[in-house]
Amino acid sequence: MSRRAPGTPCWAELGGPAEPQLLDHYARLLGWEFGENRTVSGYQRGFAGGEKVAGFGGPRSPQPAGGWRGYLSVDDLDSVLSDARLLGADIVSDTVLVGADGRFSWILDPGGAFVGLFEPNDDPGTSRVPGPGRIVDWVLVSPRADSSIEFHATLFPAVHQHLRATERDGIGGWRPMFAADPSTAGVHIDPAGNVVHLVPWE
What is the CATH number of domain 9-176? Predict the structure, then answer.
């Protein structure tokens, strides 16, 4: 397994039921196929060209504005949670074991951005192979961007020392940007009301 540098975005998901109409929407929009994660009942993973991209399922709440939950890869979840708490973050979930994949917890940073922290075991997260339907970028969105930037840059200085964030009302978080055909690039709303940001892929 190839580990990412601690603090690197590694997974995106939408909470709530993985309804057929929702999966069909992403199949049409991004050409995704789906497969169930057998370690989590009802959880579906989306694949683009055979490469794993994102997940559907799990609890609906808490949920950032726009819907998508982003996870950062960490080497030692317990240590990072301790550091995050000292830096002013709220720990908003217990640590959850995901079968052989790893374990995670959710925090709310001091700026109001909701962040998943994932310590991988057998699963490093979304594929880093470029191509249509894959994640090509992440944007940190926060109602108090300066506070979120300071938090992330202190918690993960090697990754986020030059971080920029977009300021928006509501609960913030790490927003994935998906590569798509230029004819469909832009902002879309899926059947569950989640916001999908597509950037042109030539």
Answer: 3.10.180.10
